[in-house]
Amino acid sequence: MDLLLAEKISRLGEYLEYLEELKNCSLEDYLSDYKIRGASERFMQLAIESIIDIGNEVISVLKLKRAERYRGSHSDNVKAQVQILRCVYLHMRLLYTVKSFQRIRRIWLS
């Protein structure tokens, strides 16, 4: 895998982990604490930007033609990008699941 792409996927994983931690906050805390709300919004923004960057990097690595427009477009490149993003999402979920099992195993064995 391209080193830059691996780095971007790794950063996306970090942002998703931060969001996972923030998910444990109550709605009351979220609404009343601007720091929690701001961190949540920022990490969500960074995660979305990372997904877009990953898609663009994959298009570049695979030397695919960029779509002229996205709205209403049914080009093969847009479909390919959606498939790639689905794969990245599944990869991230798998990494999260593995890390969760590792944490559970450490707790259980201690």
Key features of this structure:
Methane Monooxygenase Hydroxylase, Chain G, domain 1; mainly alpha
Please describe what this structure looks like.
With 110 residues, the chain is mostly helical. The chain has one domain (3-109): Methane Monooxygenase Hydroxylase, Chain G, domain 1. It contains four helices and no strands. It has helices at 3-22, 27-32, 34-61, 76-109. Helix 1 (3-22) runs antiparallel to helix 3 (34-61) and helix 3 (34-61) packs across helix 4 (76-109). The longest helix is centred in the C-terminal third of the chain and has 34 residues, at 76-109. The mean pLDDT is 76.
Topology readout:
Blueprint: H1 3-22, H2 27-32, H3 34-61, H4 76-109
Helix content: over 70%
The low-confidence parts are none
Indicate how many domains the architecture comprises.
Answer: 1
The helix count comes to 4
Radius of gyration: 17 Å
Mean pLDDT: 76
List how many beta strands DSSP finds: 0
- Structural class by SSE content: mainly alpha
Distance between the termini: 36 Å
Encode the helix/strand succession as letters. HHHH
Tell me the name of the CATH class: Mainly Alpha
Strand content: under 5%
Taken from the alpha-carbon principal axes, the silhouette is: globular
CATH architecture: Up-down Bundle
**Multimeric state:** single chain
